[in-house]
Design goal:
By secondary structure, the chain is an alpha/beta fold. The chain folds into 2 domains: about 140 residues, Rossmann fold (3-Layer(aba) Sandwich), CATH 3.40.50.720; about 160 residues, L-2-Hydroxyisocaproate Dehydrogenase, Chain A, domain 2 (Alpha-Beta Complex). It is about 40% helix and about 20% strand. A 6-stranded parallel sheet has the order 3-2-1-4-5-6, with helices on both faces. Strands 7-10-11 form a 3-stranded antiparallel sheet, covered by helices on one side. Strands 12-13-14 form a 3-stranded antiparallel sheet. The chain is globular and about 50 Å long. Bound molecules: 1,4-dihydronicotinamide adenine dinucleotide (NAI) and oxaloacetate ion. Oxaloacetate ion (OAA) binds next to helix 8. Belongs to the LDH/MDH superfamily. LDH family. This is Malate dehydrogenase. One of its GO terms (biological process) is lactate metabolic process.
């Protein structure tokens, strides 16, 4: 029996796309196709070749190719979409909606044509609305259209908790629900270090500061970088999701999923904890929430609904 490597296409060869390609290859999750617009065909080929030339040094055998032609993405197992513009200081993610919705729709027309069986992961912002737009264009079942926000937001939250307590990040557990905006909902009650609830170790006031820093974590990086947004932690997040799917790990991680009644929401894409495995989103967990937590989640859902209404028009 001939075994073949998985094929992963990354659309958008900018900061997040190129970094994701490198991390995917370093983990040998499959062969990577890096795809950008025709005007950037040569730079995209150049980036892919440069990445590939790291392989003898780092000892990975994944292939990485650059292209502007969707035929090279044919029959991909996973398509990761990072295409679009990023925000600059002073902008919100929602300011990107009109430009990026057009880009997502045109990318997804091609994905639908060339990789109809793929599982699609969307990164482009505003990501809840872009995942909605992708779902509408692709016409794929909802388990195969997934947005990335919760892995990254949770990673920021866990980083800050580990720093606060001066403990290993490996022992921090927690997650962030809701939309990928400044009213996302880090769930303190479900957060622990080494199994110990964080509210027994950190004062309520400091926890609120950590929650607030998490909510504006993307903006903190945007302000520091000055001309673009985060890409290392976003790429690592995409790779964790891809690995969970390709290895059928059935990991429980927060992802942006289509809501069909879960938490009382319908016809929106929203960050919730889910089982991620070989079939994409295999199950969504509905957690019991306090009145305050549900009110915070409702506020976030309202913001997401407003941005999605722009995409629907
Ligand atoms: N959901 C999340 O957690 C995160 C989302 N993002 C978002 O990801 C997107 C990409 O960010 P970066 O990589 O930093 O931006 P970037 O500007 O470095 O790269 C974007 C790339 O997309 C390409 N592109 C534009 N239109 C395209 C099309 N029609 N087909 C193929 N490629 C196309 C551009 O040529 C460019 O190379 C932004 O919208 C950003 O806001 C970034 C980080 C985290
Ligand atoms: O903040 C941005 O614009 C990019 C992003 O979504 C993040 O880093 O969380």
């Amino acid at each position: 029996m001939a075994l073949t490597r998985k094929k992963i296409t990354v659309v958008g060869a900018g900061f997040t796309g190129a970094t994701t390609a490198l991390m995917l290859a370093q983990k040998e999750l499959g062969n990577v196709v890096l795809l950008d617009i025709p005007q950037l065909e040569n730079p995209t080929k150049g980036k892919a070749l440069d990445l590939l030339e790291a392989s003898p040094v780092q000892g990975f055998d994944s292939q990485i190719t650059g292209t502007a032609n969707y035929e090279d993405a044919a029959d991909s197992d996973i398509v990761i979409i990072t295409a679009g513009i990023a925000r600059k200081p002073g902008m919100s993610r929602d300011d990107l909606v009109n430009t990026n919705a057009g880009i997502i729709k045109s990318v997804c027309e091609n994905v639908k044509k060339y990789a109809p069986e793929s599982i699609v992961i969307i990164l482009s912002n505003p990501v809840d609305a872009m995942t909605y737009a992708a779902f509408e264009t692709l016409g794929f079942p909802k388990n195969r259209v997934i947005g990335q926000s919760g892995v990254l937001d949770t990673a920021r939250y866990c980083t800050f908790i580990a720093q606060e307590l001066n403990v290993s990040v490996e022992d921090v557990r927690g997650f962030v629900l809701g939309g990928h905006g400044d009213d996302m909902v880090p769930l303190v009650r479900y957060s622990s270090v080494g199994g110990i609830p964080i509210d027994t170790l950190i004062s309520a006031e400091r926890i609120q500061e950590i929650v607030q820093r998490t909510r504006v974590g993307g903006g903190e990086i945007v302000n520091l970088l000055g001309n673009g947004s985060a890409y290392y932690a976003p790429a690592a997040s995409l790779v964790q999701m891809t690995e969970a799917i390709l290895k059928d790990k059935k990991r429980i991680i927060p992802v942006i999923a289509r809501m069909e009644g879960e938490y009382g929401y319908n016809d929106i894409f929203f960050g919730v904890p889910a089982v991620l495995g070989g079939n994409g989103i295999e199950k969504v967990f509905e957690l019991e929430l306090t009145v305050e937590e549900k009110a915070a989640l409702d506020k976030s859902a309202e913001s997401v609904k407003n941005v999605i209404s722009v995409v629907k028009v």
